[in-house]
């Protein structure tokens, strides 16, 4: 199946273009993920507003307008894809492209949660802090949003002919994976290491050893481990199915940093640059190691090395930015090693040793 054919038509999965469930073409998936980007940017703007506009007191804000209009556009596009297939003679589930079924179910769930969020804000109030991450309506919104956004990833995942996609071919799925990681990290904002500034990193791990640490040190240590999980897991899952193209890890880091810089009001630029540099280095690891389920040793080495590189660069960026190191050497030298061990553990859990 050529890229040109995928751009022009939706082809039936495992059959002709006129029978069976269709597989969305490249252009269809690309439009889906671009509209999903609009959708996601609206949420990023809303997250920025909740963090930086304390006088926010209404459901009807410019940021909500971007967010919900993005949903409307994405939903309308998916429904149009179904209508187009219906017009071509496909009926029932046969009109739903492979991978689009969960999104079709998530659209009404999101709409209902949006109405619920309006009622929540009207009768209970506007969230101003960590409560935004635990609001039941917000959790339904984010869950259904992730199901919608990952549609292009499901399309590519189901195409068994695609094993080693080029970066342009992987782009819709890669953007879907990256925005999903950023949304998960957004709702783990109480343990997000990407929003720390260089100064905050240095201060967090600078404390009197006799005092046994500090609250800020505990917060950063926990955030590193949690953020490592969210940044690494998408790559560990993806390499079980694909040989990722060079640039996939950098794309993930770049999209996640779009969110983190917005939430931090652009005070964490040195941290963001460090994560993007880490993404490039992880792409090199992917190229050299070629980790996969069949190559368990390389898979585990990659998980540990990618984690170590990410946090070694994280601390290097803070040190360069501030011109000094944290006073407690054990913390900033041991954290990358601890993250590497966590990465190794994730790899063992995801791809355990085969039974003999």
UniProtKB/TrEMBL annotation:
Domain of life assignment: Bacteria
Alphabetical UniProt keywords: Membrane, Transmembrane, Transmembrane helix
Membrane spanning stretches: 30-51, 63-83, 95-120, 132-149, 170-191, 220-239, 246-266, 272-289, 301-320, 332-351
Record carries keyword Transmembrane: yes
The protein, known as: Uncharacterized protein
């Amino acid at each position: 199946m050529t890229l040109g054919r995928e751009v022009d038509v939706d082809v039936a999965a495992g059959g002709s273009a006129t029978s069976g469930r269709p597989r969305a073409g490249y252009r269809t998936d690309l439009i889906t993920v671009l509209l999903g980007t609009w959708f996601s940017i609206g949420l990023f703007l809303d997250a920025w507003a909740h963090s930086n506009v304390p006088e926010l007191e209404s459901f009807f804000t410019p940021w909500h307008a971007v967010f919900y209009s993005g949903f409307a556009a994405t939903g309308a596009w998916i429904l149009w894809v179904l209508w187009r297939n219906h017009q071509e003679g496909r009926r029932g589930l046969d009109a739903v492209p492979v991978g689009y079924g969960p999104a079709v179910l998530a659209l009404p769930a999101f709409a209902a949660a949006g109405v619920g969020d309006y009622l929540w804000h009207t009768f209970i109030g506007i969230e101003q802090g960590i409560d935004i991450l635990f609001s039941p309506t917000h959790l339904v919104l984010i869950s259904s949003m992730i199901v919608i956004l990952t549609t292009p990833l499901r399309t590519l995942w189901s195409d068994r002919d695609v094993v080693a996609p080029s970066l342009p071919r992987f782009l819709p799925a890669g953007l879907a994976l990256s925005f999903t990681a950023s949304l998960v990290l957004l709702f783990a904002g109480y343990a997000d290491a990407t929003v720390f500034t260089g100064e905050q990193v240095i201060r967090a791990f600078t404390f009197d050893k006799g005092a046994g640490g500090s609250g800020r040190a505990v917060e950063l240590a926990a955030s590193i481990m949690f953020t490592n999980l969210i940044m690494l897991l998408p790559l560990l899952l993806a390499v079980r199915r694909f040989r990722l193209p060079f640039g996939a890890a950098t794309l993930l880091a770049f999209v996640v940093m779009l969110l983190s810089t917005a939430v931090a009001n652009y005070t964490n630029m040195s941290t963001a640059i460090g994560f993007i540099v880490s993404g490039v280095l992880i792409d090199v690891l992917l190229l050299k190691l070629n980790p996969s389920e069949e190559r368990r040793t390389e898979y585990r080495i990659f998980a540990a090395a990618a984690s170590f590189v990410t946090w070694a660069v994280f601390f290097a960026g803070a040190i360069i930015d501030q011109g000094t190191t944290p006073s407690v050497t054990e913390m900033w030298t041991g954290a990358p090693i601890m993250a590497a061990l966590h990465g190794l553990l994730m790899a063992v859990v995801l791809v355990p040793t085969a039974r003999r």
